[in-house]
Design brief:
By secondary structure, the protein is of the alpha+beta class. It has 33 helices and 15 strands. About 45% of the residues lie in helices and about 10% in strands. Helix 12 (about 340-360) packs across helix 18, helix 19 (about 485-500) runs parallel beside helix 21 and helix 22 crosses helix 24. The two termini are about 40 Å apart.
Length: about 725
């Protein structure tokens, strides 16, 4: 991998590139259109990046943003995207960068969501570095220069790169670096230079940390008693500390802020909410939290959440008794509409520390913020859409969906305009304006509900609304007035949204089973949820699939394999192989509940851009199920494996290449192997089996060829003789 050596050695004076900042964010595929003429086979690599990128992302990246990072890390020689991009960024002709504006805007949007690192390096181009010494050693030659950098804005992309083990960190173009010390010469021709990133905040004091230090008793004592409060500010809520707590990563927190950072279900560790580094928790700290009841909020944080969310939580808590027009309150209420899922994550954490305060704060937010608050745990605040600043249809639609799946009740249509009737947890029972709510007295009396006049709830200062919430414990009814949304569509869409946002630590199996055999859209949502989870957390994905199989009759599972909707068939196969490729127990479940014939029938049936990878890995997994091997060695199946191998090499897809090579070595199909001297096949297999940089593929290829040599099908000098081996039955056309 050469990105770590792609450094701009010339100290040029070039105009900064700012034009892409104002460029709108385009879809990933569209950003490739202006640069297609500069990179050969860009369409293929774009497709691979979109398929293999890290998604869903725990940092809130969209699939397009994650694909942009993944494509930047892909290597295919001198024409690799990162090489062509950096040549343009370092060019004296600044117009050469303009075709890259769409990609740079999408790439920077992704970097903004990733957590910052402490050890980075960058020049005019986009540069790569690593926080792992063993990775750096691979690129040090006889005469090399090693840069040690203290940086502020580095982004860790190890979860989104084509090489996840490289611990790669990236900085955007135009970063300024200052030389802190002259070159230090080591034995063997190695030169070490110490650099520091320069930012607009010139007073930022950073300490570079190599490795994850352990908390000791001495460090705890120093952090709590060592210095005065004026010299410390809590990293989260920016308040002065009377009793500072300092983590080994040098970030400082007050006792309460640090207490809510204890990892869920992991009592011995704490995650720094600024840099996400994991540290051991000393016994002394645990005692303090226990006596001060701080452990009650231990589930407030989960790993990999953005600093913005954590600061928002602590702001709400600090503002418990002062809801005036303070700068902090203006800041929290000025957040513009963003993804509903990110807002929901923010308020999910707010509800644990101070649910009352965050509900009141949301009264004057946008509809998207309001909907996210409802979705967090069913908090409903009576308000008027006419008084919201963003009076748009999209916001109202999100609000309606949130109301539905927060309560789990079916939306009921009353008359022409009424969509949702549900309970409200806030408000004072007042006389209802029947004409405004479009409800007849008979309906209100028949349902046995009290109703509220929501216009009156918006009167008066926030403190008055707060007092109403604290004193009144009643359950009035909230009516939402729509004229443009069909109730059934909202119910189905809300259920799909609920599945997408489900917590995989404690999934609702009843809901998943209901949706799996519900409408097509609901079924797709379940299968996509499980399949995407197989990328990020295979253990939880396997657990969910296993539970669904045990709860469901085999005939119903077979109906998914033979579903009339092709997308559902493909998503089901994808969920199976992503969840069960390394799980023997799930493989036995597949054999018991689905059977080998149904699996193979699905394997060799469809053939398109989505299903060929799923079929290949499923076949590899199925090769170890008893009774399925004879079906895999048929002429039809072998022909499919050849096609899968060719497709995998064409798109440089590591998973499909490794799958087919392993499959041919495992299932004993060597009796169908034949010599073939076709030029295109030779090129495919030369790249795949002999010169492939992946060690796993090389190992699988060696095992495969040793099997062939042992059966006398090829001779040990087959490579020198120019013969190639392909999965092709001799009697096939």
């Amino acid at each position: 991998m050469n990105r770590f050596a792609d450094v701009d050695y010339e100290n040029k004076r070039l105009p900064s590139v700012y034009g892409y900042w104002d460029h709108p964010i385009w879809p990933f595929e569209k950003t490739m259109e202006p640069i297609k003429c500069q990179i050969n086979r860009l369409d293929r690599f774009t497709k691979v990046a979109k398929q293999d990128c890290h998604f869903p992302s725990e940092h809130g990246l969209t699939r397009d943003e994650s694909a942009a990072v993944y494509l930047y890390t892909m290597e295919w020689g001198d024409n690799s995207l990162y090489r062509v991009l950096n040549r343009a960024l370092r060019s004296d002709d600044r117009d050469a960068v303009k075709p890259w504006f769409p990609f740079l805007r999408l790439f920077e949007s992704a970097l903004e969501k990733l957590p910052s690192e402490n050890e980075m390096i960058t020049w005019w181009g986009i540069s790569s570095c690593s926080s792992t010494v063993s990775v750096i050693k691979k690129f040090l030659g006889a005469n090399s220069t090693l840069f040690l950098i203290e940086s502020v804005n580095g982004k860790n992309i190890c979860g989104y790169t084509n090489y996840p083990n490289e611990n790669e960190v990236v900085l955007g173009p135009g970063t300024r670096l200052r030389v802190e010390s002259n070159a230090l010469d080591h034995d063997g021709g190695l030169h070490v230079v110490h650099l520091r990133e320069m930012t607009d905040d010139a007073e930022i004091d950073m300490t570079s940390t190599l490795g994850d230090l352990q908390l000791t008793e001495h460090s705890v004592q120093k952090s709590r008693l060592g210095e005065s409060s004026k010299e410390f500010q809590c990293t989260i809520h920016q308040g002065e500390l009377k009793d500072p707590m300092v983590l080994p990563c040098t970030h400082k927190f007050c006792l309460h802020c640090l207490g809510i950072c204890i990892r869920q279900n992991a009592a011995g560790e704490v995650i720094c909410p600024t840099c996400d580094s994991v540290h051991k928790v000393p016994i002394e700290w645990e005692k303090v939290w226990r006596y001060q009841a701080m452990n009650t909020v231990s589930q407030c944080f989960e790993p990999k959440q953005s600093v913005q969310i954590k600061r928002a939580i602590n702001f709400v808590e600090d503002s418990y008794y002062r809801f005036g027009n303070s700068p902090q309150r203006i800041k929290i209420n000025s957040v513009q509409e963003v993804e509903n899922t990110r807002l929901r994550a923010k308020f999910e954490r707010c509800k644990i520390t101070l649910s009352d305060a965050h509900v009141v704060t949301l009264l004057h937010g946008t509809k998207a913020q309001f909907a996210a608050g409802i979705a967090s745990e069913g908090f409903l605040i009576p308000t008027s859409f006419n008084r919201n600043p963003d009076n748009d249809a999209e916001g109202e639609l999100k609000f309606g969906k949130a109301v539905y799946f927060a309560h789990g009740k079916k939306a009921t249509e009353y008359g022409k305009n009424i969509l949702v009737l549900t309970d409200c947890l806030l408000g004072k029972v007042q006389e209802t304006n029947k004409s405004e709510l479009k409800l007849t007295p008979e309906i209100v009396h028949k349902r046995g509900y009290h109703t509220i006049h929501y216009e009156n709830m918006m009167e008066g200062p926030v403190n008055q609304e707060w007092a109403i919430f604290r004193k009144e414990q009643c359950l009035p009814v909230f009516i939402i007035d729509y004229e443009f949304i069909d109730a059934n569509d909202v119910i189905e869409s809300a259920l799909v949204e609920q599945i997408k946002g489900m917590n995989y630590f404690s999934p609702d199996y009843v809901l998943l089973e209901q949706a799996l055999f519900g409408t097509d859209n609901q079924c797709k949502a379940v299968l996509k949820f499980v399949g995407d989870l197989g990328h990020t957390s295979p253990r939880h994905s396997t657990m969910i699939i296993r539970a669904l199989l045990s709860r469901t009759e085999s005939i119903r599972m077979n109906s998914l394999l033979n579903h009339q909707n092709e997308t559902i068939r493909i998503l089901f196969l994808r969920a199976l192989w992503l969840s069960g490729r390394d799980d023997a127990q799930l493989q036995s479940f597949l054999y018991q509940y689905i059977g080998p014939n149904a699996l193979i029938e699905s394997l060799i049936s469809g053939y398109n851009d989505v299903s060929w990878r799923a079929c290949g890995v499923l076949a590899n997994m199925a090769a170890f199920i008893p009774g399925i091997r004879p079906v895999l060695t048929t002429k039809h199946a072998i022909a499919r494996f050849k096609a899968l191998l060719i497709e995998g090499v064409s798109f440089q897809d590591r998973l499909s290449i490794l799958t087919v090579v392993n499959l041919m070595a495992n299932i004993g199909c060597t009796e169908y192997i034949a010599m073939n001297k076709e030029k295109d096949i030779q090129e495919y297999l030369n790249e795949t089996l002999m010169d492939h940089p992946d060690e796993e593929i090389q190992e699988a290829a060696n095992r495969f060829f040793c099997n062939l040599i042992g059966k006398g099908i090829v001779t040990p000098d087959w490579q020198r003789a120019g013969y190639q081996v392909v999965a092709l039955a001799p009697d096939l056309d």
